[in-house]
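User: Fold this; tokens only.

Assistant: Input:
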Amino acid sequence: MRNPFRFAATVCVCLLLTGCVSFGVRGKAVSRSLTGQPVKSANQLYAFFMANNPDADKAQVRRLAAYYVSEAYDEGINSDCAFVQMCLETGFLRFGGLVTPDMHNYCGLGSMDAEHPGERFATEQLGVRAHIQHLHAYATTSDVALNHELIDNRYKWVNPRGKAPTVFELAGTWASDRQYGAKLDALLSRLESF
């Protein structure tokens, strides 16, 4: 007589190996630490973005993904977290608030009201750099220096330095929205499958 447990185990293994059963397997986990190791390449960030806004300018999204990876690497910031924050802040480059596309302000720096629509940067890369520098102020202590020349005019106003080691502490500090960290966490969870 056959062993029913052995038969069931064999069937389960076969189904898993052939892909007929899924347990919600995702890609590699993405760190929520702002200074954690990123796991996504610029191509993966691009694919994630385009899945959420297929009408976006593909060349621009490729450039931005590459800038986020390189600028974040230079400053020790997690590019996965920074990129999804850009996606949240700009509505996947749809904008629609005080900040406009020509400002190259991808994180709402200084955007408060009609009189203070936000900071402006000359290029996409400088806009990304300012975003990364601002995250650097939130995520690191004052003894951690920047590698690029400071262009974030609001960097000095982050007090205390290092008050947001993860995306969760950005809620109520970077943004007044108490669900801000949870929104970033949800986007990072979606990014894991790319």
